[in-house]
Amino acid sequence: MQPAGRQPVVDVALQGGAIPVGRQLDRAKALQRLRLRDTGFRHLTRGSAIVVLLILSGIIASLIYGSLPALGAYGFGFLVTQVWNPVTEKFGALAAIYGTIVTSFIAMLIAVPVGLFISLFLTELCPLWLRRPIGIAIELLAGIPSIIYGIWGLFVFAPFLQQTLQPFLINTLGNVPGLEDLFAGPPYGIGILTAGLILAIMVLPFITSISRDVFEAVPPVLKEAAYGVGCTTWEVVRYVVLPYCRTGVIGAVMLALGRALGETMAVTFVIGNAHRISPSILAPGTTISATIANEFTEAVGDLYTSALIAIGLILFVITFIVLAIARLMLMRINARVGG
Amino acid sequence: MAFARSMSLYATRRRRNGVAVALAIGATLLGLTWLVFILGELLWKGFGGLNLAVFTQMTPPPGSAGGLLNPIAGSLVLTAVAVAIGTPLGILAGTYMAEYGRYDKLTFVVRFINDILLSAPSIVIGLFVYEIMVAQMGHFSGWAGAVALAVIVVPVVVRTTEDMLTLVPDTLREAAASIGLPRSLMITRVAYRAARAGMITGVLLAVARISGETAPLLFTALNNQFWSLDMNAPVASLPAVIFQFALSPYADWQKLAWTGALIITMAVLALSIIARVLSAQRKTS
User: I need a surface site. Which of A150, A260, B156, B181 has the fewest CB within 10 A?
Assistant: First the structure.
């Protein structure tokens, strides 16, 4: 008998009568079961992959649905109003958006250079035997839950800043014309600056570990060539490594920025939860995530809850854009390394 | 003249390099100093309160001694349920991406979305679960908390499963196929086994990630002052209790918050170290 089309070999053996009839039926049944199972498993895995997509669309849909009452009541003004008054039910997101952006900006201002210099150390300067332990230690920092940073920030870091850095800033930069508003006011300890510094410590490991991976992806020949013509370490990094991994480094920075924007617990402890925009970075403020964490369970009235969900939606949209850019950048560098 | 200029250029370059090297060493020391600072303070403040009562007594009312038994138990249950929901889903989705549709458009989209979910703000995930579960059921519940944590578990497991299965050599798959193994059996009996250590690492990392998560629990599982493992009612969890106690004005509560923080950190560090050892074994064997 001719093997027909795409029939498995076992089937051909069956039809050829190589096996007694009774067992033939058994085998046919077993094969049928296997085939069902194969299709079933395939659909099960495919369905699970689709569920991942559904989770994201579910998040977006539920946030939009939940924020409709507030967005309907305040319209576009919600984004540009500073007032946040639960008693009179007047809500505006501006103070929270401002705090979110300023704290993240402070965090990036510090964490990006420090993180890049640590990766420089790890890839170019560090003795080989020290590389792994230091790398692991930095990555352990990434594993510490954010609430630990929060409690540490509130009880240890904020009082420390209140006594050292903040009076120093007020007495020096606070007297510089043009900067006096930025560093005005009493040293509260907690506030925008403290939150920004804690965020900087939190995102440092992300920047370090990704940019280290990206730096290591630079082909050694390029670096060796540069060293060969007499470049110093700094020149190799500045003119060979950094230009080569520009997209990867931007990806790492954006990824860290996404984390900083959405970080909740570490900020909630030290931000001071004040719904106003103060010119001074030493003053208490609030962020989107801290507002939600502090007020959501106590929110009475549909409009209040809806306003909180609406700022959650704003946060999600901002972080989504930032993270999407980060992934596209990192994908580009991965494609180059792979190809 | 030209010689002198080249010498001064050389000196400038050396100086610049010296500054950069000093900055790099300084940055690394700074990073390590924070780690030592935070862990040191945590040990210092947490160990003082660490005793048997912490593991055997309930959370106290303000002004009296007590322990953290109910939040510890609550955290364990929430984590276990979240892993039980999230792991199979994550493994199956990762399997599709690595085994069936490695070059699919669907895989590409899922991978992109999954990477975004991986870093999405956890408080937004809390809002999502509040909308779909708490608001619908009319009350806070342990189930809602576990689902919120599961949403965080899924992307971690998807990512590691896909990565680990992609690392399994295709020759193994071809060998399995050549002896007539159906694809589903080839995946479950051959590919999963080859990638097992890496996949377990992924689950451990997911557990480490959610055991410290606070934001998504605040308005899903809420909190509970009393012993309760009823998943239809609010359930206490260690991070939520730390949040509440640390922000309270009572010294007893603050002390318990530090102890709780120490317990969580130790658990998380232990999990990530085990995960590291496991993945290191995979590389050497």
Answer: B181
